[in-house]
Specification:
about 475 residues; alpha/beta; 9-stranded mixed beta sheet; two-stranded parallel ribbon; 15 helices; globular; binds adenosine-5'-triphosphate; binds magnesium ion; aminoacyl-tRNA deacylase activity; EC 6.1.1.7
């Protein structure tokens, strides 16, 4: 029986291995070959140069379970965490890839075979979409696979033309959705209620045909290729008979442990879900060499850590709790990711330092924020206030926005940017060296970060401990 996340992952890799795919281990979350990308956000990222024809491998078919982070840049799901049943900042993407080998027909029939024959999902639960101009894919679904016409829809480029980032490989796609049942709100893809959580997208098959350049032009790839991605947590939820990803095995362990640490009895509390999500992304990012900092990737990491700490505060955390969850994560995922086990002590140490640091200002920042909210007229927190929380108490703007959203309020992003700009000018005037620490504070797009190699952990950490 295929039920646990580990069993689903293994069944996927075995299936594609049986179809002559090379099993390739997950790459780092820090893309090694790509200065245009913040984090590895899809299974195809490590193969980007193979798609572009700039690199060749000894195989033309590959399969992987790739760790991904979507917390900045083009694919950013940070704001969805805690609000949908299906989004994480960190998740695993199961994928199969053809580098100029098979194309639409095989890609579609492999995917259908895995879902209906290996996992034995009922066909009437599956819905599909194709890119509106792709009659070829539509024909394969209707005529060769035999999908009922009323369960297929044609969708525009927003959802069915996939690209990794603003530049790079891209192409039309076809997606497979699972119907979680009528008791859940939502409509099939392409209908007005599609944003509900009833029909959940599980698998995206991308027909990689173009390389998009910075000026927007699209050049055909040397060979049409295939890139597919299926969220492990989403398909595991289906196999475990639950609706939300947060109810699957891996998350239940984390949520139980977080609840015990925080003395919270409500296992469905949104903050527990957010914390369980964030411990995964934060731990894996650190394991891959990202360190909390005030710029680039490190600042994205710091923002996620602070959001988690704030959710702990909301649950009235009595002490530093976040780093203690690393042990729980290692228990859930250490077998699949031995690097987590190896790095456990360092991850705990870095998270604890971040907790101590932010813990010093969090209480006072929250007091100020409550005061601001008490006096608020209208529904928007002024940019100057958001800036003050940021500048004096270390509240990243997105953290303040997260709190505001819980109370149906907004923040004035533009006003915050203006206040930030003014401070930057002051800092530049004050410093003959022109060091501008705020330059990258808000940026999701910093590409100059050099990354860390495994061997540089110790020296990096020493630096962090010094300041
Ligand atoms: P959605 O529309 O649900 O946000 P997506 O279209 O952005 O998903 P793709 O870029 O097509 O997702 O990625 C391929 C697959 O990866 C998705 O079909 C889904 O199963 C999974 N996936 C995407 N984003 C997430 C996420 N934030 N958390 C968990 N799984 C995800
Ligand atoms: Mg998405
Ligand atoms: Mg989608
Ligand atoms: Mg998609």
């Amino acid at each position: 029986m295929i039920k646990t996340s580990a069993e689903v992952r293994q069944a996927f890799l075995d299936y594609f291995a049986s179809k002559q795919h090379q099993i390739v281990p997950s790459s780092s979350l820090v893309p090694g070959n790509d200065a245009t990308l913040l984090f590895t956000n899809a299974g195809m990222v490590p193969f980007k140069d193979v798609f572009l024809g700039a690199e060749s491998r000894s195989y033309t078919r590959a399969t992987s379970s790739q760790r991904c982070v979507r917390a900045g840049g083009k694919h950013n799901d940070l704001e969805n965490v805690g609000y949908t049943a299906r989004h994480h900042t960190f998740f695993e993407m199961l994928g199969n890839f053809s580098f100029g080998d098979y194309f639409k027909e095989e890609a579609i029939s492999f995917a259908w075979g895995f879902l209906t024959e290996v996992l034995k999902l009922p066909k009437e639960k599956l819905w599909v979409t194709v890119f509106e101009e792709d009659s070829e894919a539509e024909k394969i679904w209707l005529e060769q696979i035999g999908v009922a016409p009323d369960r297929l829809s044609r969708i525009g480029a927003k959802d069915n033309f996939w690209s990794m980032g603003d530049t790079g490989p891209c192409g039309p796609c076809t997606e497979i959705f699972y119907d979680h049942g009528e008791e859940i709100f939502g409509g099939p893809p392409g209908t007005p209620d599609e944003d509900g959580d009833r029909y959940i997208e599980i698998w995206n098959l991308v027909f990689m045909q173009y390389n998009r350049h910075a000026d927007g032009t699209m050049e055909p790839l040397p060979k049409p290729s295939v890139d597919t991605g299926m969220g492990l947590e989403r398909i595991a939820a289906i196999m475990q008979g639950v609706h939300s990803n947060y109810e699957i095995d891996i998350f239940q362990g984390l949520i139980r442990d977080a609840a015990a640490l925080l003395g919270c009895n409500d296992l469905e509390h949104k903050s527990l879900r957010v914390i369980a999500d964030h411990i995964r992304s934060c731990s894996f990012l650190i394991a891959d060499g990202v360190m909390p900092s005030n710029e680039g990737r490190g600042y994205v990491l710091r923002r996620i850590i602070r959001r988690a700490i704030r959710h702990g505060h909301k649950l009235e955390a009595k002490s530093h709790f976040f780093h203690k969850l690393v042990a729980s994560l290692v228990e859930q995922m250490g077998q699949a990711y031995p690097e987590l086990v190896q790095q456990q002590a360092i991850i705990e140490k870095i998270l604890r330092i971040e907790e101590e640091q932010f813990g010093r200002t969090l209480d006072r920042g929250m007091l100020l924020l409550e005061e601001i909210l008490d006096n608020l007229k209208g529904d928007t927190i002024a940019g100057d206030d958001v800036f003050k929380l940021y500048d004096t108490y270390g509240f990243p703007a997105d953290l303040t926005a997260d709190i505001a959203r819980e109370r149906q309020l907004k923040i004035d992003h533009n006003g915050f940017d203006v206040a930030m700009g003014l401070q930057r000018e002051r800092a530049q005037q004050a410093s003959q060296f022109g060091t501008d620490y705020n330059e990258q504070m808000k940026s999701d797009h910093d590409t100059r970060f050099k990354g860390y190699t495994n061997s540089s952990y110790s020296s990096t950490v020493v630096e962090i401990f010094k300041d």
